Amino acid sequence: MTDFIDFQTFKRPAKPNNWLVAPDGFADTALPDESSPVFDRTPSALFEDIMQMVAARDDWKITASDPAAGRISFIAVTKLLRFKDDVDILVLPVPGHDHQSTLVVYSRSRVGYSDLGTNGKRVNALLSALAMP
Question: Is the residue at 128 inside a domain?
């Protein structure tokens, strides 16, 4: 098991080489870049969809997962320069809606000051893919 990020208390670095998406009010101390969407599937179904998506990519490698906690961590390798970026995901139920879920996604570069938008593009591509039926 890995030490997963505590999204409700962690603080992001000042460098612009990371991207955070979270439900409104969930990770306010970290100042999310965007609000996370709501998906019309259970948390366990969303978790499985993410696991399959990550496993299907050659440039992404799962480093830890905890289905019971809805946690996934993986490394994403950039295509051109082969930089390794870390991605952490937490799948959450939507209160009062048993068949809906949402998530927290935090993608960050290990090196450099700027990522030229890579982490934001990665997170938004993941969210777009999950939104497809």
Answer: no
How many structural domains compose the chain?
A: 1
Quick check: is 48 in a domain?
A: yes
Distance CA 133, CA 124 (A): 16
Q: How many CB atoms lie within 10 A of CB 83?
A: 16
Tokens of 13: 């670095």
pTM over 0.85: yes
pLDDT tens-digit map of 40-72: 999 999 999 999 999 999 999 999 999 999 999
**pLDDT tens across 11-35, in order?**
999 899 999 999 999 988 889 999 9
The contacts of residue 20 (CB under 8 Å, 6+ apart) are 12, 27, 30, 31, 32, 33, 34, 104, 105, 106
Inside any domain, residue 125: no
Find all residues with CB under 8 Å of 48, minimum gap 6, and list them: none
